[in-house]
């Protein structure tokens, strides 16, 4: 199974699918921004997706657009190919430090969502998180109803990809 180093970008996609308007820049969790591709990669990826017929646009380093749920599988396949075309190897293994950064960021997201009254799935141990990252990942915002995604992003901007 492909490693999804860029799985951490999912909060932006979830908020985009809910049709929200842009939110203020997200605070950057210590070091997490090192896991995100820069503006050149984002621009190349967005252009590739647009060439493939997807209605997307670039906002900062986030690729946003309305992707109908029934087209999500096709979009994800194209997005993966565009990511590879932009020079990112989604199969590159994560280091122990990268897993730790992601886990700590996800804990921050979970704490914020829980504190704001949103449902959150049970937090796994660090070891279980790493072991299941590719097969059954723990995604703290996965229990947030789609209709609440915009509000969750506004109350917990830590969910958004770092903009620096």
Percent range for β-strand residues: under 5%
| Count of domains | 1
- The averaged pLDDT comes out at 80
| Count, helices | 6
What gross morphology would you assign?
globular
The assembly state of the depicted protein chains is single chain
Contiguous runs where pLDDT drops below 50 for at least 5 residues: 1-29
Total strands: the figure is: 2
Order of helices and strands: HHEEHHHH
| Strand adjacency order, main sheet | 1-2
Biggest β-sheet description:
2 strands, antiparallel
Structural class: mainly alpha
N-to-C span: 30 Å
The Cα radius of gyration reads 15 Å
In percent, how helical is the residue content? 40-55%
In words, what does this structure look like?
This is Secreted protein. With 164 residues, the chain is mainly alpha-helical. The radius of gyration is 15 Å and the shape is globular. The chain is built from 6 helices and 2 strands; from the N terminus they run H-H-E-E-H-H-H-H. The protein has a two-stranded antiparallel ribbon. The chain has one domain. A hairpin with a 2-residue loop joins strand 1 and strand 2. The longest helix is centred in the middle third of the chain and has 20 residues. The N terminus is likely disordered.
